[in-house]
Structure formats: C-alpha cells, structure tokens
Input
Amino acid sequence: MEKLTLEQLSTLILEQAKEKGFGTKPEEINVAEKIALIHSEVSEAFDAYRHKNMQGAHGFQEEMGDVLQRILHLCGVLNVDVGEAILEKLEYNKARKWDWEKINEQHS
Output
C-alpha cells in the first residue's frame, strides 16, 4: 500500500467528505459534534484494545484509522496544519520538564 503524507491524506479525506456531504467548510459542520465523534472513535479503539482485537472489523487498527480520519477531517475543515502542530508540540516537549513523582501520585 502506498505511503501518504498527512497533507495527502487530509486532501483525500476532504474530497470524500465533499462527496458524502460531511462538510468541508466551517459553516457546514458542528465542531462540538465532530470532537464528540473523535472521542467516540477513541473509546471504540480502547474497547478493541481491551478485548485484544487488534485487526479486522472494529479492531484497534481500524478504529485508530477512524480516529485519525475524523481528526484530519476536522483539522482540514478548520485549516489546521496538523503536521506543523505536531512539530511545534514535539519542539515544546523537548524542553518540557515533568514531575514524575507528582504524576505518579495522581494516578495511584
């Protein structure tokens, strides 16, 4: 299977969204609904992983594809450069300090 960039994937997703009537302009979508749908897909991915269903219909891989597709659709509609956002966050995290003791206390 051909490897595509985030930009190429986003273009394909927006083309399909236009064909299917899912909205390609901010005024054509409900952002809160789109974020809720992303959350729903993340929950489905978690459920698949929890049940050790990694491949196939409703498997972890498919659900993660759904998560990314919904994120790229929303970001494409809102003209968010996902690649740039990720690079900026990676750069920020290089110098970021985590208090692992405090984090571990909160999650124990």
User: Anything to note?
Assistant: The radius of gyration is 17 Å. The longest helix spans residues 31-50.
